[in-house]
Amino acid sequence: MSTEIIFMFVAVFLLGTSIGSFLNVVSLRFGVSSFVTGSSECPKCKKGLRWIELIPVLSFIFLKGQCRGCGLKISWQYPLVEVATGVLFLLLFLFQKSAFQIDYLHQMISVDFILTTILLWISWSFLIVIFIYDLYHKIIPDRLVFLFTIFSLFIFATPLFIESEFLFQGSFVDIMAGPLMFFFFFFFWFISGGRWMGLGDAKLALGLGFLLGFVQGISALVLSFWIGAFIALLILLFIRLQVMFGVDKQLPEQQKRLTIKSEIPFAPFLILGALTAYFFSLDLMNLSILFGA
Question: What is the pTM of this model?
Answer without folding.
Answer: 0.85
